[in-house]
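One-letter codes give the sequence; the fold follows as tokens. Both lines appear below.
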Amino acid sequence: MKKVVILGSTGSIGVQALEVISKNMTKYKVIGLAAGNNTELLLKQIEEFKPKVVAALDEEGLKAISEKHKGIDFNVGQEGIKKLAVLKEADIVINGIMGVAGLAPTYEALRHGKKIAFANKETLVSGGNLIMDAKKRYGGDLIPVDSEHCAIFQCMYGSDKYELSKVYITGSGGPFLDVDKKALRDATPEQAIAHPIWSMGKKISVDSATLMNKGLEIIEAKWLFDLEPEQIEVLIHPEGLVHSMVEFIDGQIIANLGVADMKIPIAFALSYPARNKNMFGRVNFLKEGSSLTFRSPDLNKFGCLKIALDALDMGSSYPAFLNRANEILVQEFLNGNIYFTQIGEFLEKLIDAYRPVRCHNIMDVINVGTVAERATQTFLKEAESQGILR
């Protein structure tokens, strides 16, 4: 029986991971849960899965829970989450923490030789060189949970990296694929998070609507699979059945197809290198697979993808800065403070004004995030004074 720790247990990935585990209770035992501030849901998870160790950012909420469950080791804050990330008994750590906050736990887990199933693409976007160096140095393992990277991982399995020619990362195009560019400015948060295929959290849903998500996935793939930027291509695939493809030097292509359900790559990561029986749906080729279409992304309409590609080309700390600035702007959009198209417009201006630094350690990456926060907040205040916000 595999012993599992879940970081971000109350988020979208964490909830779905626990659903997978609930259907395989003879194979997995949850020994640790870490959450943010949703202690109400955390309490329900504790009562169902009975972990030994728990951490949360909400100190008061955690205190209330601890009074009801005396036999559990409760921990508060980021240090508590790190403790769970390196828990000695854990066979696998699932990191579903959103944003750059997931960077330090991933790094610490790798330093302790842990196997990590991670859905936190921002970790590799912001600190890819540090994460991959830690993996190599300390012998930890990274199993991607993102559907696209899990697909690439499977397509490449058993092949030498030098046999690989190109990777195709697919994306549905999001809710605004066929919406006129002029209409995007007034798109609402409700429209942006209404993804046509995937069930995801609000932040990643907005990233999918701007196509920033594809840009972040390219940066993630560059680090995870040791690729050159020119070896990675994005294809818009509205049907959402092909999750990614790998082309080899002999011209042959291996594709990964499956239903659009995050529980499937989560289940793969949990069981790897074995496979468990599918409980979450299968492709009906005579129905869903009768027509598969692909097209190039419109970089003029979806400027965020172009910005991410430029950040990758410029390298250094640009991706880390981009990642944090994007997080803030997406939240401002979700709060109704800026227009949808201002996410990309403001990002471009912020990137142009940024001066990069070398990141030698995790704290350097975190400091870049702090710089991005300050720059973005200052920019937003100026924009507000000019009366150009929503």
Summary: The chain has a mean pLDDT of 95. The first helix runs from residue 12 to 22.
